[in-house]
Design goal:
Helix 2 runs antiparallel to helix 4 and helix 4 packs antiparallel against helix 5. The chain is of the alpha+beta class. The protein is built from five helices and eleven strands. It is elongated, with a radius of gyration of 29 Å. The two termini are 47 Å apart. Strands 3-9-8-5-6 form a five-stranded mixed sheet. Strands 2-1-4-7 form a four-stranded antiparallel sheet, with no helix packed on it. About 9% of the residues have low confidence. The longest helix has 25 residues.
Length: 280
């Protein structure tokens, strides 16, 4: 199977940015003013957590969640559900919704406590993933949210793990295709085309780097930083391709029809091309 680098690069970036736009966009509702939200998991505040101190989510261990809401507005608010999600590059890899029926009068503060059973988390994700706890009102509008960092103790065979493995396989195929082209002197003589030929492996290397550091719990895959790393790797690969030596012309390239004559033999069905060489 032949890998088309330009198509691969365009397809990867289109899917990633398109999915980010579709999945990260929520309902077009304005968030109410005067709503204060704090949340804890296992009695620890989840706001401002980092890769060095993430919220640990284990598939076989329930998490005690407490959500405190203060209504500073002039109207009563109603909480419909609480959503805990984890996203990478705008793609949602785990999501848990808990239905509630909490009403908060103006000027009042209420705390909602419940145990979250993360069943099935092992097959959804693994590693450091950006998390988000959001409170949704009765009309579907988001009342508030808290960003955090989660350490999901799932399996490499999870959806997120298979996503990274697929990226690695596609990147390896793109690298192999480029290596074969370089070894066989089949790259284009045009510098821009050589740069584009190495663009796809560069994009893949950047994406695989982000996935690897996430799974190994070295780094939180923030969307902007991850895409920036992929763009930087793609730029380096393009420059390497652009500056690579121009392939030597093969024997077939030495033939120029301008310096050839047509020798028609006695047999009308036989036409022989005789090279006369360059004219001195």
């Amino acid at each position: 199977m032949t890998i088309h680098p330009r198509r691969f690069a365009i397809s990867v970036l289109t899917v990633l940015f398109g999915a980010a736009a579709l999945l990260s966009s929520g309902p077009a509702h304005a968030q109410p003013d005067g709503v204060e939200l704090t949340a804890t998991v296992d009695d620890r505040d989840i706001a401002g957590r980092s890769g060095a101190d993430p919220v640990v989510l284990t598939p076989d261990s329930p998490a005690a969640i407490a959500v405190t809401l203060r209504n500073n507005g002039a109207q009563q608010i109603e909480v419909r559900r609480v959503d805990l999600t984890g996203e990478v590059l705008g793609l949602r890899f785990f999501s848990y919704s808990t239905a509630v029926g909490l009403k908060i009068a103006p000027g009042k503060t209420e705390t909602l406590r419940y145990d979250l059973d993360p069943a099935g988390l092992e097959g959804q994700a693994t590693g450091l993933i950006a998390g988000r706890l959001a409170v949704v009102g009765a009309d579907g509008a988001e009342l508030g949210h808290v960003g955090t960092v989660t350490d999901v103790r799932g399996s490499i065979r999870s959806v997120y793990g298979l996503f990274g493995i697929a990226l690695a396989v596609l990147t390896a195929l793109a690298l192999l295709d480029a290596a074969i082209g370089i070894a066989g002197h089949r790259l284009s003589a045009n510098r821009w085309q050589r740069g584009v030929r190495l663009l796809a492996p560069g994009v893949g290397i950047g994406l695989v780097f982000g996935f690897t550091t996430s799974v190994l719990r070295w780094w939180v895959p923030d969307t902007g930083v991850w895409l920036g790393a992929a763009g930087a790797a793609a730029a380096v690969a393009f420059v390497l391709g652009y500056l690579s030596p121009t392939p030597d012309s093969g024997p077939d390239d030495a033939f120029d029809p301008e310096f050839a004559t047509v020798d028609v033999s006695g047999n009308a069905d036989t036409v022989r091309i005789v090279s006369r060489g360059p004219i001195a």
